[in-house]
Amino acid sequence: MLFIIRKRLFQLFIVLLVLSIFTFTLMKLAPGDPVLTILNADEMLVTEEDQAKLRSDLGFDQPLYVQYGKWMLNLAQLDLGKSYMTGKPVWDELMERLQITIELTTFALFIMISIAIPLGVLAAINAGRWPDQVSRILALIGASIPNFWLGLILIYLFTFKLQILPSSGIGSYSHIILPAFTLGFTFAVVYARLLRAGLLQSMSEDFILAGRARGLKEWRILWIHAFRAAILPVITVFGLSIGSFLGGAVVVEILFSWPGLGSLAVEAIFNRDYPVIQGYVLLTGIFVVIVNLLVDLSYYVIDPRINRKEEAL
Amino acid sequence: MEATIEKQIKNAGDLVHTAEESLLEIEDLTITIDSVKKDLVKQIDLSIKAGEMLGLVGESGSGKSLTATALLGLLPSSLQITGGTIRLGNHQITSLSEKEMRQVRGKEIAYVSQNYQSFFTPFIKIGKQFVEVIQSHSPTKKSEAKKIVRYWLNKVNLPADRVFNSYPFQLSGGQLQRAAIACAILLRPRLIIADEPTTALDVLTGEKILDLLRGLQKELNCAILLITHDLKHVMNRSDEIAIMYGGQILERGRTCDVYQNPAHPYTRLLFQSRLQLSKEVTKELRTIYGEPGLIAEKGCPFARRCPYVFEACNEIPQIKTVSDAHWVACHAAN
Questions:
Q1: Domain extent listing, chain B
Q2: What is the pLDDT of residues A204-258, one digit of tens each?
Q3: Residue of A125, A201, A204, A214 for testing the chain B interface, max B β-carbons within 10 Å
Q4: Which of A104, A188, B39, B244 can pair with A116 through a Cys bridge, CB separation 3.0 to 4.6 Å?
Q5: ipTM of this complex
Q6: Which CATH number fits domain A90-312: 1.10.3720.10, 1.10.3210.10, 3.20.20.80, 3.40.50.300?
Q7: Residues B248, B296: Cα–Cα separation, whole Å
């Protein structure tokens, strides 16, 4: 257990290093100039002199590796720099938005789990019958429609037609339902299929037959003996797709004007606000690696064989 | 405290199992694949008395395990019992509801499988699974259940404390099979179905397991259905023997009668093809003609491999009485 944590923390370091180099270079290669944005060149007259001054203030006139080195040096002191647009420290900005995003993603996860598990279990115990067909169709829908489109449909239905849920903003629980559902649904129906496959597999194991032969109740067989083996592949896939989950969160945040990290990142990209973009990418990177670490650790909890075997080596 | 528990467990056993008549009666049992209407087990009759062991012998695919699964009421949904009855004590198993059947399983009929590696759920500690069995059948306090589990683990010569707190993968094959037996007898069942319990074990461990089963049977006075493809396992242990081929019982009777006077050609050939210790080394081991699984579609299932086959074998043979409590299904037998 400690071994894997150590290994993952080392990996985290490597991942972040590579990630920072890539984003740093890519942003410099991308078209657009932050100097013009900062000086609001679209609306005001900007002289060459002003531009040059700001450029040297921001250190843009130096070679790329020097800029990167300086940024890294600051990062080592946990200083992500200041936002070009607001002038506030990037760290504060990120933390403020992170809280709001966590609210959304937690709720989306909750919705995801409460759809995926009952749907998957129902489809498995009724394999071939109508609940299975329904889950199959839902999975097809969930896998094919992009979540911004699902979000638009939901807004049309619940905000425009039925007028029961707000389409944007934050504040109350009614605000969180639509975005969280939009984000959670597409993942949930696909995971339900995975869970169904895992359950069908584990229900055909010999130990299930032996359990039934011992006279165990069917719900115990399902939830205690079969479920645990079936949930592992679902958790694995979730770990792998956590990146696209966070990506989906960005789209959903924009769609529902949810002022979280995603909206912050998109604003920052439009404004070429380099420090904020880099901060966002790093934070997402850390998050992805940590979730994958948790996924790995969950294996040890769910299947004790993994742990003991490693100890025996 | 331990002593009183032991006493209680022992006394509980004295109350049941007194009937003289057969404990398990299978009559005319037929199992069919639903989709193609093919009979996998055809009109078999079997019976076991309390305290006795029936050896059900047959090669792979002869329908012995299927019969066992039918006894437990756990046939896969593609298979169905299309005829006959199974009676255990005063339960008609074939007409019990799923809920009633669940209460019979584990409590009245216990099952030991050949695949000891996955007899227990791999990620739950063994002790917990034992306690689960007890609590599934009667509301029992955990501490009480633990004592019962300890008692039976000691009975099968396992270090009770260590096994109780182990995961299945931490035990050896022999230990696991012992634990499986302990789990099977936990609630003093009236019938134990042992489906090739020694197949996956080495010879010596296998013998020990069978001796253990036999010993426990004496104490419990339960019936055992020992399914095997190895004649030597049943010859010196079981009271009765039934030879199965192609879903039918070809011969059945007291083990000594069948051994001394095998009436069916298949039984005779089986005895001849055993490895034996004798002064003279035979040049060649007798084998049975044809491949296992070569089953005649109609008439006697063994007809296509039988050296004595004649025209009448196209008809299903009547069951003939060879001697008292010894039956054979063969046209050639007299």
A1: 2-245, 264-329
A2: 999 999 999 999 999 999 999 999 889 988 998 998 888 888 888 999 999 998 8
A3: A214
A4: A188
A5: 0.84
A6: 1.10.3720.10
A7: 11
